[in-house]
Amino acid sequence: MGLDQYAYAAAKANEFREFWEGAELDPITGEYVNPAVEKPREIMYWRKHPNLQGWMRELYKRKCRSGDDPVFNGAEVELTWEDLDDLEHAVENNLLPYTQGFFFGNDSSAHYREQDLDFIRKARAELFVGLRVFYNSSW
Q1: Residues 6+ away with beta carbon under 8 Å from 87
Q2: Contact between residue 96 and residue 52 where contact means Cβ atoms under 8 Å apart
Q3: Residue 43, class by beta-carbon neighbours within 10 Å (0-12 exposed, 13-18 middle, 19+ buried)?
């Protein structure tokens, strides 16, 4: 067990959850499919990046009425241009908040720095073509 974090591009909110709730394994291709919902495109995956989780939790708290959820597990957060600018500033200046959790692992901000910046570039490209960008995590 551990902290798994995802960023994906989709046309609408909750598309990730909707896809996986109705997805079935295609025995020929070995891929999951859901004819009712287009599969969101994964932009990035992180494994145990606790400080990014802390930054996203704070963003979630600012954006969502239910943002006082102390667990912040499985909650989808939409990222805007402004959010990506703020995240880029935090990553470049080592300002991701120190975050701990039982399944989170140790501080990995230095390890993920280039991947975080790559994610920001990719996310901006998705926004540019009209898709929406979301972050979600589970542990």
Answers
A1: 55, 79, 116, 120
A2: yes
A3: buried
pTM of the predicted model, to two decimals?
0.87
If you compute the radius of gyration of the chain from its CA atoms, what whole number of angstroms results?
Answer: 15
Are the beta carbons of 100 and 93 closer than 8 angstroms? no
> Closest by alpha carbon to 29, among 42, 18, 21, 39?
39
Task: Render each residue's pLDDT in the chain as its tens digit; 139 residues.
Answer: 688 999 999 988 888 888 989 999 999 999 999 989 888 999 999 999 999 999 999 999 888 765 555 668 888 999 999 999 999 999 999 999 998 777 777 787 888 999 999 999 999 999 999 999 999 998 8
Q: How far apart are the first and last CA of the chain?
A: 7
Label residue 35 exposed, middle or buried (CB < 10 Å: 0-12, 13-18, 19+).
exposed
Query: Distance between CA 2 and CA 119 in Å, rounded?
Result: 21
Phi, psi of 73 (to 5 degrees): -130, 115
Phi, psi of 133 (to 5 degrees): -115, 135
